[in-house]
Amino acid sequence: MSAKRKAEVFLQLDEAARAPLYQQIYEQIRDAVTSGRLVQGDRLVSIRKLSSDLGVSHTTVEQAYLQLATEGLVVNVPRSGYIVERIDSDYFKLERASSEDEVRKLAESRDREAFFAENRSGGEVRYDFSHANLQPDSFPVRIWRQLLNEVMYAQTAPELARYAYTDKVGSLQVELARLLSRTRGVDCSPEQIVVQAGTGEALTMIMQLFNRTTDVIGMEDPGYATVHEVARRQGFSMVSLPTDQGVEVFLAAVERHRPTIIFSTPSHQFPTGLLLPLDARTRLLKWSEEHDAYIIEDDSCNEFRYATRPVPSLQSLDAYGRVIYLCNVSKALSPSLRIAYAVLPPRLLERYWDLFNYAHPSVSWLEQETLARFIAQGYWDAHVRKTAKGNRRRHDELLRCLRSEMGDILNISGTDTGMHLYVTVRNGMSEQQLIDTALAQGVKVYGTARMRFPDTASTSSVMIGFSAIAFEDIEPGVKALRRAWL
Predict the structure, then answer these.
(1) 6-18: per-residue pLDDT in tens?
(2) CA of 294: how far to CAs of 55, 177, 193, 216, 307, in Å?
(3) Predicted TM-score (pTM) above 0.90
(4) Domains of the chain (ranges, CATH numbers)
């Protein structure tokens, strides 16, 4: 490229300004180029002359020119100096509109039925009967800090200076395998455990092991809304498996639709709280083997039972390698840690390694190592016992108050486990009316409409949780519900 003309730009420098001198030179020449005052082929003043004219060092000007060249505004041509490149100056004259108003309008129109909106609105009322959050002071901060420090100061934590890979079994996988074997009867090797950043990410990973064009997901109805959301994003078709009409209706729907993937919460059906009996479990396992199907068993909330001992997991009964076991630490430890895990049967583990052989762990090594020590040193068991004791106390109080205040108009299920009660109200109100009238009294209860298929009949049922509300707020909260519903 040859220079068309020697171009000079009037430059003003302010030694008192916060921006260094080279940056001031760079910005003024850049603006001249983008505005069209300097055009393609113009030659900039030589570094030596400009440094002399401005009374600055040769290095200062050189640094400004190098930045211009790095960004493609000029090019250094031997024996010609720095030449202006071709720039669409008309484009840079376009006025860029602020996106603030548009973003605000989009935010205001965002779906308010989503979990994040429910969660936030619950925190804005006096009595929040949340079914997902925990007690504000429940996280074991002191112990977690102690373990985190142990990890950080152990051999200066060299793992933080290199990439972690999924082909190496981590200490968390080892501890989870031991924990699951001891508490849930899950039969697995550490290699089968895949740690993911939350249940949604775990479901996304699991669904990627299947074919969205040929595989169909059998979804509990009502059921866990996140499965609906993930399946929709992944492009899978879903069929309804009713869970509130009895076991035989559920199994008949399985036989009728013949899904290749069945999502199930057999030990604590979400949201109804019902339990899948042993005979139905074995029948479902046999059906899956006969029809080459897989079952995703979500075992969330398995830590909390209030009248009986824990029920064995479906995976512990699986003689065919058809169950994908799924769980998380959100209900027992912290929902904000975003740690979930899946136990893959060998046939799917092979698919996982083929697809994700080069994947990095989605949960940081630091968090995994800290949680592994939390489990290994007995803190997990102690924390679960403490949390279960508090949940049991609030569970009993909520049940007592509901029966005392409105027992004649309520049907209550899910009383033996979990973090909420599933309550059907016989007062003529729809689900949405129950939610709205409660909210008018400063009470937040949670609906199940987004957990149902569009053609499923609406109900008058809501979830009333006890995991996050203070014990002393339960009775006045229920009294406020009585005023709303009666």
Answers:
(1) 667 889 999 999 9
(2) 76, 21, 17, 11, 31
(3) no
(4) 5-92 (1.10.10.10), 107-132+382-485 (3.90.1150.10), 141-377 (3.40.640.10)
